[in-house]
Amino acid sequence: MTKRELLRAASAEYTETEILELDHAIDVASEAHSQQKRKSGEPYIIHPLAVASILIEWGMDIDTVLAGVLHDTLEDTEMTLEQLETLFGRDVAFLVDGVTKVSQARSGMRDLDTYLPGTRDNLSKLMIAVGQDVRVLIIKLADRLHNMRTLEHMPREKQKKIARETMEVFAPLADRLNMGRVRVQLEELAFRYMSPKDFSRTKALMDSRLKRSQRRLEGVRREVSARLQDEKIEFEMDGRIKSVYSTFKKLDRVEGDIDRVHDLIALRIIVDDLSTCYLVLGVLHELYTPLYERIKDYVAKPKQNGYQSLHTTVQTDAGQIVEFQVRTKEMHDYAERGFAASFHYNESKLTDAYAKGAIAKLPASLAWIRELQETAAKASEHKKFDAKKFQMNLFNDRIFIYSPKGDLWDLPNGAFPLDFAYRIHSDVAQHASGFKINGVMKPFSYKLQHGDKIEVLTSKTAKPKAEWRNYMVTNHAKEKLRMQLAKQNHNMFTEVAERLRRRK
């Protein structure tokens, strides 16, 4: 990405004055990063320009794009916050500072398993950064997406760590913002580095199936198009191929049989209004035999992140199973761009009143953003805040747990005390004799809750037991227990063999 290419991409989206601002921001960032190189050996400025290009593609406002160009200047150059504010205004400076604070919060983690984050102080920083303006998260997602696209230049261990962080944190975050296309891109890139063999195997299976399916699917497309035209329905139709990562997860549920992944290819029909959506659904069910258990009305009952669409799976006369997605143009835009499509910022600069009140205009599906903003306001004023609420709303499948020292650890929802014990250290876990949760003894079967304070009680005589497998959900804990039991059995066998030898 070059300056000329970025300005060309921006020219169709922003005013002449805004383009001049962008031109200036590029010059400032280029000068600030002039002595820096990426791991690839390329000039560093390529990265912030690419981030800005992604933000333009997502339809973000000019301040967000300017902040994308400048997002690394505070962290990686001599540029100061005061200089940024003087040059580009309070709001651009605020966004860049927010992205910097997110990076600082992440850098405080001891390891990935204590990601969000290692201390209460870091949690406060993070919430203050993102809660006052959620565009900070959007910029961070664009930053991560470009870094994942260029991850091949990193050492292998670094690749795996960044990929895992992307899969566990940034992809779910994109999903919470209903940025479906971004989530898929992040998952796909992360999966490629986390499990290259599984990625290649799944991709090969998909390619073999697609060769067989696409020709037949084209016949279905022509048949449906002709029928909709007969009904005088205006529509657009395109195909959607399931991502490699989603296919991999689906294969696990269908015993590895690619022919049982019926939604590998889906036909998407986009129409003008809601009533036409249901009309199209009726046409599809007249043409083909619907599989009623696979009809999903996400219009009447949207997904938690606000996603709306009608899904149906049908069987053609030739026996082919085909999935259709039917939605309006607005639904499609929201499904693709999520937050960026649903929330349009004022052309005028943000005011304090805007920062405090505009979030209330968000759709109900994104109400967690308003709650995050309110929590951030408390954190910035050093008032008590509910970390549990923050965790639940932002990463609804993860929970925060406190150690006796007050450190925060994140675990998957449904985790047991043993998951926590093995997360701390496997030597601690193998001698676990009990657990105090919020000062009260709890059994091994207790499921941890948001905000629990847990103390692991140990005994030198305590040993790992096979039944512990019933009280853990994390792969890390399961693998460590498996190794300990194997070692324990080996030692027992060796001991018995030695006794028998002595008897002889």
Structural commentary:
- The protein has 504 residues and is α+β, with helices and mostly antiparallel strands.
- It has three domains: 3-153, Orthogonal Bundle (Hypothetical protein af1432); 196-337, 2-Layer Sandwich (Beta Polymerase, domain 2); 398-503, Ubiquitin-like (UB roll).
- It is built from 22 helices and eleven strands.
- Helix 1 packs parallel to helix 3 (46-57) and helix 12 crosses helix 13 (244-253).
Range of helix content: 55-70%
State the CATH superfamily name of the largest domain: Hypothetical protein af1432
CATH-derived topology of the largest domain: Hypothetical protein af1432
Distance separating the two termini = 78 Å
Category by helix and strand content: alpha+beta
Strand content: 5-15%
Number of helices: 22
Low-confidence stretches: 108-123, 343-361, 387-393
User: Mind telling me the CATH class of the largest domain?
Assistant: Mainly Alpha
Mean pLDDT: 81
Task: Give Rg in angstroms.
Answer: 26 Å
Summarize the structure.
The chain contains 22 helices and 11 strands.
Strand-helix topology:
Elements: H1 3-11, H2 16-32, H3 46-57, H4 62-70, H5 73-76, H6 81-88, H7 90-107, H8 120-131, H9 135-149, H10 156-176, H11 180-194, H12 196-230, E1 236-241, H13 244-253, E2 265-271, H14 274-287, E3 289-290, E4 296-297, E5 310-315, E6 321-328, H15 329-337, H16 339-342, H17 352-357, H18 367-380, H19 387-394, E7 398-402, E8 408-412, H20 417-424, H21 426-430, E9 432-437, E10 440-442, E11 454-458, H22 475-503
Parallel strand pairs: 2-6
Antiparallel strand pairs: 1-2, 3-5, 4-5, 5-6, 7-8, 9-10, 9-11
Helix pairs in contact: 1-2, 1-3, 2-4, 3-4, 3-9, 4-7, 4-9, 6-7, 7-8, 7-9, 8-18, 9-10, 9-11, 10-11, 11-12, 12-13, 18-19
